[in-house]
């Protein structure tokens, strides 16, 4: 399974903070996982289509073509605003 | 020579500037101590703010802050590096973030402190939710913060 986390307004708009996704041919990259989740319904499609969306694979900010494997932790979130 | 020490904390409770200052300033080989404190202010983009909630990504946040501290050490000769960032809900005027660095000389300490806050603002997974008269609102990332962090990449 891939452990998927959502933060800030992405979490709020989706109404989910974490879900598990079964690894498949479609989830071999961060972009593949995003596309799979975006296909769930209109709301998920809209939130995950944001061109500002960031992805972290195993707690490192990553590019969309980063490989994703069974057991990985993948997080989707908006640009950060700390400090 | 004093020993290099990083202190990186993500916590809900407030911090004491005098205590943190005393912790890093005790070393007589350091001539320079620079600290920065970020506070909750009462406005953003012209709207009144009543309180602020900080969300973060536990685990990743601490890793990124330690990485940023290590990057600062690669650039400047620093003795102490302290980064404390609060999460949870904070009222107007409360302290959000503390950066403290010490070095033999002031230029390194000033530069490292500015680098740390610029990098933290654009790299560490914290998000601000402001509450105000208009309801709750997620703070948008600012291009100016990105530009500030990019300036350091060129050097």
Automatic annotation (TrEMBL), chain A:
**GO terms for cellular component:** molybdopterin adenylyltransferase complex
Pathway assigned in UniProt? Cofactor biosynthesis; molybdopterin biosynthesis
Task: Tell me which SUPFAM superfamilies the record gives.
Answer: MoaD/ThiS
Q: Name one GO biological process term.
A: Mo-molybdopterin cofactor biosynthetic process
Record GO terms (molecular function): nucleotide binding
Coiled-coil positions are: none
Q: By its UniProt entry, which InterPro entries does this protein fall under?
A: Beta-grasp_dom_sf (IPR012675), MOCS2A (IPR044672), Mopterin_synth/thiamin_S_b (IPR016155), ThiS/MoaD-like (IPR003749)
Q: Has keyword Nucleotide-binding?
A: yes
Task: Please provide the record's keywords in A-Z order.
Answer: Molybdenum cofactor biosynthesis, Nucleotide-binding
What Pfam family is a match, any one? ThiS
Under the heading PANTHER family, the entry gives: MOLYBDOPTERIN SYNTHASE SULFUR CARRIER SUBUNIT (PTHR33359:SF1)
| Protein family per UniProt | Belongs to the MoaD family.
NCBIfam families from the entry? moaD, PRK11130.1
Give the protein name, as stated in the record. Answer: Molybdopterin synthase sulfur carrier subunit
């Amino acid at each position: 399974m891939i452990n998927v986390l959502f933060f800030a307004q992405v979490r709020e708009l989706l109404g989910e903070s974490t879900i598990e996704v079964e690894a498949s041919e479609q989830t071999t990259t961060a972009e593949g996982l995003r596309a799979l989740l975006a296909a769930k319904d209109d709301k998920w499609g809209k939130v995950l289509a944001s061109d500002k969306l960031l992805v972290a694979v195993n707690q490192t900010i990553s590019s969309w073509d980063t490989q994703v494997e069974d057991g990985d932790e993948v997080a989707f979130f908006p640009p950060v605003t700390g400090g | 020579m004093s020993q290099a020490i990083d202190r990186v904390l993500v916590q809900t409770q407030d911090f004491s500037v005098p205590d943190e200052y005393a912790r890093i300033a005790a070393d007589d080989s350091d001539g320079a101590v620079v600290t920065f404190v970020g506070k909750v202010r009462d406005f953003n983009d012209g709207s009144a703010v009543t309180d602020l909630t900080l969300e973060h990504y536990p685990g990743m946040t601490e890793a990124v802050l330690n990485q940023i501290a290590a990057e600062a050490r690669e650039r400047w000769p620093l003795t102490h590096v302290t980064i404390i960032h609060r999460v949870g809900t904070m009222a107007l005027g409360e302290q959000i973030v503390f950066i403290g660095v010490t070095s033999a000389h002031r230029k390194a300490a000033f530069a490292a402190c500015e680098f740390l806050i610029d990098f933290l603002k654009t790299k560490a997974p914290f998000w601000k939710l402001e509450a105000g008269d208009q309801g709750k609102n997620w703070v948008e990332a600012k291009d100016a913060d990105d530009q500030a962090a990019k300036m350091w990449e060129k050097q």
